[in-house]
Design brief:
CATH class of the largest domain: Alpha Beta
Bound molecules: magnesium ion
Largest sheet: 6 strands, parallel
Distance between the termini: 22 Å
Radius of gyration: 20 Å
Shape: elongated
CATH architecture of the largest domain: 3-Layer(aba) Sandwich
Number of strands: 6
Amino acid sequence: MEGSRLKAPQLIAFDADDTLWLNEPIYTDTQNKFNTIIRPFLTSGSPDEILYQTEMKNLKIFGYGIKGFILSMIETAIEISDGKISSRDIGSIINLGKEMINHPVLILDGVRETLTDLSQRYKLMIITKGDLFDQESKIARSGLVDKFSYIEIVTRKDSDIYSAILKKYKVIANQFLMIGNSLKSDILPVCDLGGHAVHIPYDTTWQHEEVDVQAIKQPYHVLENISHLPEYLENYFDSPIG
Ligand SMILES: [Mg+2]
């Protein structure tokens, strides 16, 4: 392997939701409770599909995050019930959203140990998209803040955003490594820029984040668990200096 090793990453960035802590199951669980509320009004179609279409329509108005999701649930309830949903039911939907926002931050297996290890040798960053207030709160409550040199909360994750981050931190793409569970948000745009990416799939992926794997032209790595990351770095990259 001598000579074929890659330059050590100057910066290793992690996605947060479903990479560092559990997220998607909280949405799925809420959606199930929401379905129970609106089921009496449903005459045809799938409530999941109607909600998803409303979310997609609203994404460019509200952005990502729980607050937009709450508004989309309310809009869907009004639509499905043809305006007959009671204010009591709308109150229940708002409460579902508040429960999501206050949900404990559940750190995924191996995350704390791996970050503790890597933060001694590398500069680590969080790049997460979503609602600023909610993401800041989750980061603060995660107890992981001291592992990271930098935190970036962005409205979307595309190659323009990643490019701007690399410029801001003066990091060249091939010395940047991104870790995440979403091919669409964490892997594809980073590969497009010539950066390195490690995909750590999570059990469930939001429909919106699904992508055709064939669309990714650059090689990326898949790891089953974040705890395999130090070994991956050792195998493929030079040791970090200092
Ligand atoms: Mg994620």
